[in-house]
Amino acid sequence: QVTLVESGGGLVQAGGSLRLSCAVSGNLFSFNVMGWYRQAPGKERELVAEMRTSGRTNYSDSVKGRFTISRDTAKNTILLLMNNLTPEDTGVYYCNTRATWLQSNDYWGQGTQVTVSS
């Protein structure tokens, strides 16, 4: 079992930055992929960025060059640094951990709202 708690969302003007944090607790050996997803109003949830425990990262085309995913292993935290935000980045951001070897090891946080004003 893994528990994820996001923080750091808020209201920011276009061009600004935010840093999201996801505190991870529970069985830290039950996953090898950590990621951030977002869901805009009226749209499906989409992948923003993910990182494997190997260090390999993957970003959606819409955020490449602006967002950075990282992990603070000492604090058991997954971070998402978001720069040069646009109104299209508005949505609820969710933290996720999953295991590529076991589909049921798929955990989600409660989400944090990010709103970018123009």
Given as residue ranges, the uncertain stretches (5+ residues, pLDDT < 50) are: none
Number of contiguous helices: 0
- The share of residues in helices is under 10%
Largest sheet: 7 strands, mixed
Order of helices and strands: EEEEEEEEEEE
Overall pLDDT, averaged? Answer: 96
Count of distinct strands? 11
User: What is the terminal-to-terminal distance?
Assistant: 40 Å
Approximate strand percentage: over 45%
**What structural class results from the helix and strand content?**
mainly beta
Radius of gyration: 14 Å
Describe this structure in words.
With 118 residues, this protein is mostly beta strands. The protein is 0% helix and 59% strand. Strands 2, 4, 5, 6, 9, 10 and 11 form a seven-stranded mixed β-sheet that branches. The protein has a four-stranded antiparallel β-sheet with strand order 1-3-8-7, with no helix packed on it. Strand 4 (33-39) and strand 5 (46-52) form a beta hairpin. The radius of gyration is 14 Å and the shape is globular. The protein starts with a strand and ends with a strand.
